[in-house]
Amino acid sequence: MRKSKKIIRSLLANIVTVFISLVILVPLVVLFLNSFKTQGEANNMSLSLPSTWQFENYKIVIEQGKLLSSFFNSLLYATLSVVIIVFVVSAAAFVISRNRKGINNWIYYFIISGIAIPINNVALMKVMQALNLVNTRLGIILLYAAINIPLSLFLCYGFISTIPREIDEAAVIDGCGPIRLFINIILPLLKPIISTLFVLNFMAIWNDFTMPLYFLNNSTKWPMTLAVYNFFGAFENSWNLVSADIILTLIPVLIVFILGQKYIVGGVSAGSVKG
């Protein structure tokens, strides 16, 4: 009796999982199919196969949607921001986790409070204007790094706290200084959490829409999210081209997620043990 109940529960859980997966995947399948249809066929937004596969839709999108320049902008913003986040967070988490006394403890809680505090765009705009960082690539990179540091520090701190202090003591006895200790001993042990931070922050920055909209006024500096928005405004009746544009925007972040998904669960669970 218990075995049959267990089988029924497992079957129901699988059915629910499949249903949820279909709910998520159906819009993506519709977008993919519509990207190869003619304008008339795509307006129906159906799951039917295109009568003739229109591969030239992607050529039109790349040429008229300025996707090449926006792709490199997104890649630049996401990559450099993530590099800054990983370097700053890993070093800060190591120092704070090894010495929670005095000001370090206050700094830690001050930074991670940014997880809950909402962004005040008015004040942020004033700060960016005072530093002459509005409508600059450097400004948006630093902005992304600052926004994503609190959660990254929380996860990285939890991970480093699981590393035994005896490793530090053994390295110091062997003659390692603080910098050499961090770079040669601690940093190689942080590969799981660094991989996790890279994937999570890269996807968040790549998919962000609001920050470039507020702080980048020049279309030559727009990332792919704004390029899609601008393209939709010009071709709002051509759902085949809009679908192709969205698919091209999704591909890079989808590849990053597929390659790094195995690190996300392990890194987040390890980084959330202590806080």
What is the compact description of this entry?
Helices cover 76% and strands 0% of the residues.
Give the number of helices. Answer: 13
Shape: globular
- Arithmetic mean of pLDDT: 85
Q: Which bin fits the share of residues in helices?
A: over 70%
- How would you spell out the order of helices and strands? HHHHHHHHHHHHH
Number of strands: 0
Low-pLDDT ranges: 271-275
**How would a textbook summarize the main sheet?**
none
Helix-and-strand structural type: mainly alpha
State the distance separating the first and last CA atoms: 44 Å
Radius of gyration: 23 Å
Beta-strand percent range: under 5%
Please provide a written account of the structure.
This protein has 275 residues and is mostly helical. 76% of the residues lie in helices and 0% in strands. The chain is built from 13 helices and no strands. The protein has helices at residues 2-34, 39-42, 56-64, 67-98, 103-112, 121-130, 137-160, 165-173, 178-189, 191-207, 210-215, 224-234, 239-271. Helix 7 (137-160) runs parallel beside helix 13 (239-271). It is globular and about 70 Å long. The two termini are 44 Å apart. The model is unreliable at 271-275 (pLDDT under 50).
